[in-house]
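Reply to thread "Modeling small-molecule complexes from scratch"

Following up on the discussion above, here's a worked example others can learn from. I took a protein sequence and the SMILES for adenosine-5'-triphosphate and predicted the complex. Inputs first:
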Amino acid sequence: MTDPVLSIRNLNIDYIGAETDFHAVRNVSFEIAQGELFGLAGESGCGKSTIAFAVSRLHRPPALIRKGSQILVGGRDVLALDEDELRRFRWSEVAMVFQSAMNSLNPVLTIETQFYDVLRTHRGMSRAAARERAAELLELVDISPDRLFSYPHQCSGGMRQRIVIAICLALDPRLLIMDEPTTALDVVVQREILQRIDVLRRRLGFSVLFITHDLSLMVQVSDRIGIMLEGELVEVDDARTIYRSPRHDYTRRLWASMPKLHGARIGQEQRP
Ligand SMILES: Nc1ncnc2c1ncn2[C@@H]1O[C@H](COP(=O)(O)OP(=O)(O)OP(=O)(O)O)[C@@H](O)[C@H]1O
């Protein structure tokens, strides 16, 4: 793989306890290429979110990244960034969409003002320029620019989540981390949002780290998938191979627990 967007090497993360420490992420290494959609799967508590938070340095005590761990984004050593560098790095290099992201919009501000806050703070944009850019970004996620003047409560859950994604894309990040981004939404809306992400990453070239419990959606949308078990990454392969010919017994059991797949992979539906 030439110049991966994300490179994780020997990542070890502990949760420090009063009596004992819990080794939540164990010697994990993987890479994500430019434009690649990488899915991370595994049972609840296996360490997926801990990795997602560490990549954007959003982990907080008691989480502690052990010495010897390495996280590079676009070749930069994320673990060595100081506070100023981190502020610039977040949003512009890596943006993160959480499960509850749609509730993270400020209820008393219009959508337009929320775009403006990000674009003014990070790019020094004027209100008029920010409005123009915000309208373009809303169109990317299939939302009419008229919505700029709505408040979050006037938008549906699916629309709010797409607005958050549009705000995340405002600064052209290299990597979008999506941790259970659509879990609170109904399945049709979930699929529509992932289809849109798939089209956008092909068009704009950003990479995606995608975490979900919806394994069939993950298989359909991902290029490669990593399987985690009790803090370790036990298998990584392209989505088709890992689904059809899993090597690890745990991966087999994981697939056995999910409903059978019907229909084409999302990316294939988009291709002519
Ligand atoms: N603040 C914390 N203090 C102590 N242990 C924690 C803390 N946060 C997470 N853990 C533990 O670390 C392990 C990994 O948690 P993590 O949230 O990364 O798992 P996950 O795979 O994302 O789970 P889920 O799919 O349920 O979100 C779990 O055993 C969890 O109990």
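What I'd highlight from this example: The pocket of adenosine-5'-triphosphate is lined by residues 15, 22, 24, 42, 44-50, 62 (CB under 6 Å). The radius of gyration is 19 Å. Questions welcome below.
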